Fold this protein.
Amino acid sequence: MARTSPLIALLLALGFTGPALAQEPTAAGSEALKPVLQSDSLVFNGVTRSKDGRVFSPFQRQTKDTGIELGEWKDGKVVAYPDEAWNGWKTGDDPTKAFVTANAIRIGPDGDLWVVDKGFQGMGETPLPGGAKLVQIDLATNTVRKVYPLQAIIREKSFIDDFRFNGRKVYLTDAGSPGIAVLDLDSGQLHRVLDGHWSTVAQRPLTGQGRVLRDDKGRLLAIHADQLEVSPDGKTFYYQACTGPLYSIETRWLDDETASDDERGKHVKLHAATVSTGGTAIDAAGNIYASDTDGLRVLKIAPDGTMSTLVQDPRLVWVDAMWIDESGGLWIPAAQMNRTPAMNGGESSAVKFPTTIFRLEIGAKPVPN
């Protein structure tokens, strides 16, 4: 039988009777994991692929002020994108005109490449004024089309982590000052929701490969609101702290600026008892794929909240933001973030090169853009 995690055991003890927690896994074999991209020196924490086959990743600098933040994979190599200038920021430079720390990327419904910049370098730091931003890049011209400043919703410890589209709205998670931000692309207006709500707050320290993680100053790591997805019909928003569990709320409660957080909180539901997670993806049928950073596996969460193991492999160390391509393949970046100094108590990097992005055929369609 599958081993029950401590979090699931706790929920059972508390009498949780919602969606089934964990099913006996029917996992794909390790031979189904196909390495598609590798690097002998770079650490990435995500992947996205355009419909015409261009592949991009955000990269995590391992040395302060040195290295790229966003790159395109060309012939197996990484090229700074959209140019060297946007990747050349260093301490003291203008943080509004270059990537301070590109944290999450995705191809948007418009076919452009979108990038969220958290605006600071070290874990737990305060974002630089104007540093936190959402950047829209035109893939046809390889130039920045527009920058959406996020300063209006930034708090002292804000860590704008990831984002998803829903029509002309963008939802962003704040993993540092727990909450959700909503950006209206037409007006540029921003507002925060579920600010400090228990569903956005990490309830336990972050773990990876069964070990409690610490930041580069030796402090226990708590990553608050992090992973998020929107249902294919745009009506349901799924979100969680990095350590789970996964909650849901109707998107109308996020979009309505007149609603109070007290009212919103009444509509939060527990969707699935996920565990420590690096990244997620969602398909056109509403199945969510979530990594398990302790079990080195990818879970498949059905629309009713039941979970099963999609694939488990010792190479899947800290799978981060995944992507589903047009041919039904799940791109799985084994980011090894738990082995970097930022999550390893400041110790020397334990990343084992080459770092690898795998592809697994899942026969699912991506959410239509």
DSSP finds three helices and 26 strands in the chain.
